């Protein structure tokens, strides 16, 4: 069996499963957020009754992150609906924006985006939070009401995105009926060269198989090249499995995985037992191809879909209006460090926005000093508009007052985020080019799509 | 249950993603609240760029679409897991989407909500017909007839009874998988 088949067999209490089987799996973690949480709660109450209780209050993780720092009253209301539900149900893990469990959230537009407006429980982007706060564990089954839930597969777990109705069903029963996907293996060899990162790997692979090349399938990453990839790189890779249509993305487990997970579950007091899976020698693969990481170059997905693969060095003729770094895909501490390595001591030429994915990233950027200066200040001094309020922000456009949102037609934006269909970051007649933090940084300096290797020693 | 749907068609090409089906700014609406469900319908396909799709799917100032069937190319519904996408289409009055292929989560959400029938076509129909053409979708014969030409579609199979029942919960109750409410 493949990694995905092994996990689904275990979760459904079967000795083995094969692609195409429909199985009821027991769910280890259900994650929801402010955009789909209220609707999920609505389905749960409609179907199981107003007084129904969730199947396990320790297995439902609620993370407000999408539309938080906005004056839109309905968005603010949605966060309050989550809080009421958490109080009613006694849900253990809720990363609320305010400290008062009886309070109401309202974004203060006078304080705005450059003043901290979160309480002590807030974290930020859901997928980053799951990893940092000890909710990702090898061998487990995780569902989330967000398509980038597949990111959690970096930790050798089965993780995929679902809608409100399925999530409401899980809330009431702890189970879901799913089809076992076929597995596509991406066998990674070699090590990434300087200036090339996990983002380039996944953009390369999506370009290879096409924007729907993994539809209904599992993308399994293994091989000797895996060991050289940081957990952050692995998260960036599995995060975008959905951009090739994948049901899930999943890595093998190694010491790096265990070290990361063990440290996070210990620090956060979350469940610490888990059982990783390994692929069988006779696993059946729908697709199997080797990729040499050392041959990869800075890669860009051009407007209007993540499969429009080009090399950064081929695109020097494309003039840009804006650069953006942030999101689950590109807003981790390591992403900002890569960005800062390029822009340090220089000044960006186009409007450039930075959104840390979580409060932990924000803290780390302020605490990390290079030659006596914090990375945060290095970015600000280079002209990057850094918000103090972590979250999804303009990665998916959002309400019109969202920090960094593209509100004008014709804007060309290079972004470290994950998706570039028309209108993704705001205006439906704008264009988004997806690239690594290195490439976004180099392009911000020149105002054109730029291969970052000329800026990295 | 015999089922045919006759309606004007709305025709789009490949990769109609969830941001085009329901732009992210409208995700502040909660689909289980009736008024907000209706409102989602009024914004269905509001994210289609005007230059490619000059005809409005939902006419200005209205909440329903005159197009009960959408015909699309590959990868319809790709992108986000937002259930608001099939719901917005269903709320606007769409009964079926006929496409060369569907993104996985959109397909699943269409079935789970029972909002619409996502039907696969083995041939590319969207290049041969235009928005406003009259079509008949026969879900028993698995055919779509437009402008006198009949296209063979792939059968819906196991998901048909789920959608017929009105979605996952109704189906699960009818078939005894979960207790009746």
Write the layout of secondary structure elements.
The complex is a heterodimer of chains A (457) and B (181).
Chain A: H1 3-11, E1 22-26, E2 29-32, H2 37-48, E3 60-62, H3 73-89, E4 93-94, H4 126-132, E5 141-144, E6 158-161, H5 164-173, E7 175-179, E8 182-189, H6 198-209, E9 217-222, H7 231-239, E10 248-251, H8 255-268, E11 287-292, E12 299-301, E13 309-311, E14 322-326, H9 327-330, H10 333-343, E15 351-355, H11 359-367, E16 369-370, E17 373-374, H12 375-381, E18 385-386, E19 412-415, E20 431-434, H13 437-446
Parallel strand pairs in A: 2-3, 2-5, 3-4, 5-6, 8-9, 8-11, 9-10, 14-15, 14-19, 15-18, 19-20
Antiparallel strand pairs in A: 1-7, 12-13, 16-17
Helix pairs in contact in A: 2-5, 6-7, 10-13
Chain B: E1 4-11, H1 18-21, H2 34-42, E2 67-72, H3 84-92, E3 96-99, H4 104-113, E4 117-120, E5 134-138, E6 143-146, E7 149-152, H5 159-165, H6 168-174
Parallel strand pairs in B: 1-2, 2-3, 3-4
Antiparallel strand pairs in B: 1-5, 5-6, 6-7
Describe this protein's structure.
The complex is a heterodimer of chains A (457) and B (181). With 457 residues, chain A is of the alpha/beta class. Chain A has two domains: 1-296, Aconitase, domain 3, CATH 3.30.499.10; 299-455, Aconitase, domain 3. Chain A is built from 13 helices and 20 strands. In chain A, helix 2 crosses helix 5 (164-173). Chain A is globular and about 55 Å long. Chain A starts with a helix and ends in an 11-residue tail after the last helix. The mean pLDDT of chain A is 98. Chain B is built from six helices and seven strands; from the N terminus they run E-H-H-E-H-E-H-E-E-E-E-H-H. The model of chain B has no long low-confidence stretch (mean pLDDT 95). Chain B is globular, with a radius of gyration of 16 Å. With 181 residues, chain B is an alpha/beta fold. Chain B has a seven-stranded mixed beta sheet. Chain B is 25% helix and 19% strand. Chain B has one domain: Aconitase, domain 4 (Alpha-Beta Barrel). Classes of the chains: A alpha/beta (457), B alpha/beta (181). At the A-B interface, helix 2, helix 3 and helix 5 of A face helix 4 and helix 6 of B.
